[in-house]
Amino acid sequence: xxxxxxxxxxxxxxxxxxxxxxxxxxxxxxxxxxxxxxxxxxxxxxxxxxxxxxxxxxxxxxxxxxxxxxxxxxxxxxxxxxxxxxxxxxxxxxxxxxxxxxxxxxxxxxxxxxxxxxxxxxxxxxxxxxxxxxxxxxxxxxxxxxxxxxxxxxxxxxxxxxxxxxxxxxxxxxxxxxxxxxxxxxxxxxxxxxxxxxxxxxxxxxxxxxxxxxxxxxxxxxxxxxxxxxxxxxxxxxxxxxxxxxxxxxxxx
Length: 253
What we know:
Blueprint: H1 3-20, H2 26-48, H3 51-84, H4 86-91, H5 99-106, H6 109-126, H7 134-161, H8 165-181, H9 194-202, H10 204-217, H11 222-252
Helix pairs in contact: 1-5, 2-3, 2-6, 3-6, 3-7, 3-8, 3-10, 5-7, 6-7, 7-10, 7-11, 10-11
């Protein structure tokens, strides 16, 4: 098998696991609905004075948040495969070193797509309305999905470097929550203190949010999309080699 076929085969393995265990999709199906209801109807009136207005503001943010949270599953599943000996069997085959890692990320596409569809569908049911056309909305979904897949290399590295799935989840929360809450996902940044606003300025999630809101609600698009694409390229360029090196170390131990 050539390298592309190996990556696609291992990607399909991840998809088959979801088909056999559909309950593992429960978090990405019901999670978006729960988060959206809680934030819109608990905090929306206090933040913007109107739950309808806040729904328009926060739903693109929730799209980014759900993709961030769903990426953690890549590292957890990978760590479980390593611990259970699945990767030992894969290493005994004549496969590219990076193929199992690409397959782990590719197999997570289904979870990401389900999360996006569930969130947007439930948001529309609550009253969210797009201010742009179908193509910009599809571009927003594609950008969120691409950002999630690029960020997944961070979780691949953690899944290989940490001793168990609980450690991956714990450290993952430490990474995700500052990136999520110290951003413009839930609130505009103009009320934040200077030191926090300075962090938000360099937070990659902030630029993703600007891009998603521009594509879904109208507004500047080119600059935030470009910056987001640069962050995505940086995630892959930095963390993919580190993850491959960690995989090689696991191979010789």
